[in-house]
Design goal:
Blueprint lengths: L1 H14 L3 H8 L14 H8 L1 H25 L6 H17 L12 H11 L1 H18 L2 H26 L9 H23 L1 H9 L11
Bound molecules: SN-glycerol-3-phosphate (G3P).
């Protein structure tokens, strides 16, 4: 039990590290004082250019994946391994959204969520990346692309993973082990989507009023 708590706490603390803010400070600015004020890759890219934006994206994505990889390795052979690994992903995501180092005022969670779901349900994560790219190319708003990808993620997890599980002999019953895992992953995707939408509430307001800045306008 104690090891589960250590892993979850470690995941939260790693998720709390604001890489976008740190990279911005290294480049001489506080990204919370410019653009959208967010510490995520989009705002870092907007204020400091593509390279630092991509670096922030990768760092925020990895801080979702690494605690899960570590927990999976540490708990090899443990009965609760899958559950604790999934919870470590959730803890890292919550760390990014509500970081202890920044008075619990963090980012919007899209890159970290992507990292978590690339680990848990890679097909669904890739599907949601396709949605993201299509919306971005069509309408030009990163926030709208993020909101769309997050909204479709629970459905993608359910469709892409429940259908193959249902076809496997012996796991068709609704409460079998494979189904429980799919239910939990779908619920996790739903929870992530709700939190991502909540964190994008200012973007939603700007999109609604037609005031959101297009991605094409802030390319350097
Ligand atoms: O992932 C964040 C993105 O969806 C919006 O970022 O800086 O435009 O609020 P931003």
């Amino acid at each position: 039990m104690a090891i589960y708590i250590v892993l979850l706490l470690g995941a939260y603390l790693l998720g709390s590290v604001p890489f976008g803010l740190l990279l911005g400070k290294m480049a001489g600015i506080d990204v919370r004082r410019g653009g959208s004020g967010n510490i995520g890759a989009t705002n870092v890219g907007r204020l400091l250019g593509k390279k630092l934006g991509v670096a922030t994206l990768l760092a925020d994505l990895l801080k979702g994946v690494l605690p899960m990889l570590l927990a999976s390795w540490w708990l090899a052979g443990d009965e609760q391994r899958s559950l604790v690994v999934g919870l470590c992903g959730a803890a890292a995501f919550l760390g990014h959204l509500f970081p202890i180092y920044l008075g619990f005022k963090g980012g919007k969670g899209v890159a970290t969520a992507l990292g978590v779901f690339l680990y848990l349900t890679p097909l669904a994560a890739l599907g949601s990346m396709v949605v993201f790219v299509l919306v971005l190319l069509n309408w030009g708003y990163v926030s709208l692309a993020s909101l769309s990808a997050a909204l479709l993620m629970p459905g993608l997890v359910w469709l892409l993973y429940s259908a193959p599980a249902a076809l496997e002999p012996g796991v068709g019953e609704l409460l079998g082990p494979a189904w429980v895992e799919i239910w939990l992953e779908t619920l996790l995707a739903l929870l992530f989507a709700l939190l991502i939408w909540f964190k994008h509430r200012d973007n939603i307001g700007r999109l609604w009023r037609g005031e959101e800045k297009s991605w094409r306008n802030h390319q350097k």
